[in-house]
Please model this.
Amino acid sequence: MTEIENGDKVVEIYLEKYELYIGAIVGIRRHISSINSKKMNAVGNPNFNWSIDIESSCAEMAVAKALGFYWDNSVGTYKEADIKPDIQVRQTEKEDGKLIVRPADSDSDKYVLVTGKWGKFKIHGWLYGKEAKIERFMFKGYNGMPDAWFVPQQELRDLNEIEYKQTELFY
Model:
């Protein structure tokens, strides 16, 4: 893994214009794909719209960029890792946002919290799914959605501690 040079636990990443364009196109493709597959908004988020897909796609690209790896910009892969083989990226526009992990999420995947939008992101850290799924982080039925674990930023591991080996891109 690339050593991330930053004295603070939070890593700031800025996407270039061409990266924003790619992330936006992938987000739009994902949104249309989910409409066509009828898997859209599986958690019942009342504020769901395609800007969520666009920003989350850009956040995935930002994490891959921070780690020094290629982002495969996949569409239609749903529960597969956002960054292969086992990194899931969770994005929120809220500066004080929490890492959200849901009951069906893998215990062994690594979940990375990213805040920000419009190509200006902060990566706050990560946890394994099983580390997030503890009682003190449980939140019952947030905003009419199913129960989930909401992990505060200060509870996350430093991004430099993530063990990561990118799988082969071409088979």
Notes: The CA atoms of residues 33 and 39 lie 9 Å apart. The chain has a mean pLDDT of 85. Helices lie at 17-37, 50-67, 129-132.
